Amino acid sequence: MMYSPQRKILWFAIISRIVVLIFQFIFNILCPDHDADAFKGPISNSEQVSLCDNIITLLFSGLSRWDGEYFIHIAKYGYVYENTLAFYPLYPILVRIIAIPIQKIFFVLNFNSSLILAAVLINFVCFIKSAIIFYDLSKIVLRDKNISYKATILYCINPASIFFSAIYTESLFVYLSYYSMLRSIKLDPYVSFPIALSILTRSNGMVNIGFPIYFRLKSLFHSFLTKHPNFSLKTLSKFMYEITTLKSICVICNIIIISMVPFILLQIHNYIMFCIPNSNYMFTSEHIINYGIKNNLVIAGTNNSEWCNLKIPVAYAYIQKKYWNVGFLNYYEVKQIPNFVLAIPILYIMITCIKEYFLEHKRYFCTLGFIQNFKSKKEIKTKKYPMEMLVFVVHGLFLTVFCILFIHIQVSTRLICSASPLIYWYCALTYTSDSNNDTAYESEENACSKWKVFFFKQRKYSLQDKLILLYFLGYTGIGCIMFSNFLPWT
Fold first, then answer.
1. How many whole angstroms separate alpha carbon 145 and alpha carbon 129?
2. 458-469 as b/e: b if 16+ CB within 10 A
3. How many CA atoms lie within 13 A of 250 on its CB side?
4. Which helix H or strand E contains 355, and what residues bound it?
5. What is the C-alpha separation between 173 and 164, in angstroms, rounded?
6. How far apart are CA 287 and CA 266, in angstroms?
7. How far apart are alpha carbons 7 and 287 in whole angstroms?
8. Helix (H, G, I), strand (E, B) or coil at 143
9. Is the dihedral of CA 467, 473, 474, 476 positive or negative?
10. Residue 440: is it exposed, middle or buried by C-beta count within 10 angstroms (0-12/13-18/19+)?
């Protein structure tokens, strides 16, 4: 029985998640937890803990490290401390919604265990759906089923794999981002909704607004060229007039407004919670208030937040700087050299891909794809990178520059792996083909197996192949060890 690429991707995505869950469990049991200086949410002494709760903790506690503690806390109590505003609400809201029926069905579990199960379940489902959507997106952009298949398999073992299973937003965000990209290419009029949800998941979701705007403008320009085939400055001025008509402006404004409305509502909610004094807190539990006072945390309703006095009272940038020292070149310190080393592979891949694409399609790049390269189809076909990758290259360039200049550099790995398809496309295009048949996406033996894929049964590996696999599989394995034991990782 031969399995289609979609079915093999489905099975491999499921198996990759199960392997990560098993690895984090084993390493969490074998290795002692590092005593990290990280947020650990308040624990209520009144919450009963059963044997089943202890089992859930044993199985999945390795997934609730670092930011996972924040998401569980937010899902449980809401935004009660100022520092929690750095984490956007869609994921914890979904976790809470799913946790309620889980607790009713498995009544022996307390709410904390139900939240952990809900978070793991959401990530498991979102990751599998994102893999399938990524394959569909890759087929449209790359126009090659074999390369698209390889890119998706590499996505399933990406270097930030542990974060796609941990109680983090990576799986939900990548699912919404890839879906938004796919619908943008298809000029879906409702693409603003998944983009709005991606913005409510992570701050960098705002960059996704560029995709539908770009594809809309490009579609308008190509429609215009069919009416005015002789391109000149005069026709360009006519096109500029056409896109400034009421209909075109309304379409673009509609995309921006619908995408941004949830974000604006979130800022209003944050302002009401933290900038307007209110003694009637949403929370009444004494242990929450005591924890905040003990750890010198700004509590909602106390009007002690400095960002409230800003001209534009948006909390995110202020909180990132105050609590994590995030800012322009703030991370460039000698003691951070190990973290720069961790980020070098993904930054190198992104920069190499962007540079190679630019050298292949200079004119197309400089005109943002609005003016085609006037070359023969044969010449274009021999190129490594499809021209259709342009908007994703620009998107990847922005993310890469942003990572280098602004964020904690080690976060580059998971930020790029969950936002840009470039790393997977580059590695798939670079990877040596083991088949002489251009139409064969796998060897015959692998195609008859649900989970066997090209890198398990390849007859020969180039140096690049070995480096790609070493990076992907190595970071996956080491990430499971480091993250599950509260050790610093990407």
1. 18
2. beeeeeebeebb
3. 3
4. helix 337-360
5. 10
6. 26
7. 49
8. coil
9. positive
10. middle
Rounded to an integer, what distance in angstroms lies between the CA atom of residue 59 and that of residue 166? Answer: 12
Structure tokens at 208: 């996704």
Contact (CB, 8 A) for 156 and 34: no
**Alpha-carbon span 270 to 82, nearest angstrom:** 9
26 CB-near residues (< 8 Å, 6+ apart): none
The residue behind tokens 């990782």 is: 489
Residue 140, phi then psi, degrees to nearest 5: -70, -45
- Compute the chain's Rg from CA coordinates: 24
Phi/psi at 438 (5° precision): -65, -20
pLDDT more than 70, % of the chain: 90
Token representation of residue 164? 């796609």
Which of 19, 57, 13 is CA-nearest to residue 477?
Answer: 19
If 0-12 CB within 10 Å is exposed, 13-18 middle and 19+ buried, where does residue 107 land? Answer: exposed
What is the distance of C-alpha 172 from the center of its chain?
7
| Whole-prediction pTM | 0.93
222 is written with which tokens?
């190509």
Q: Could you tell me the sign of the dihedral formed by the alpha carbons of 295, 300, 302, 305, in that order?
A: positive
CA distance 326 to 451: 41
Q: State how far the Cα of 355 lies from the Cα of 196, in Å rounded to an integer.
A: 31
Q: What is the pLDDT of residues 418-457, one digit of tens each?
A: 999 999 999 999 987 655 556 678 888 888 888 889 888 7
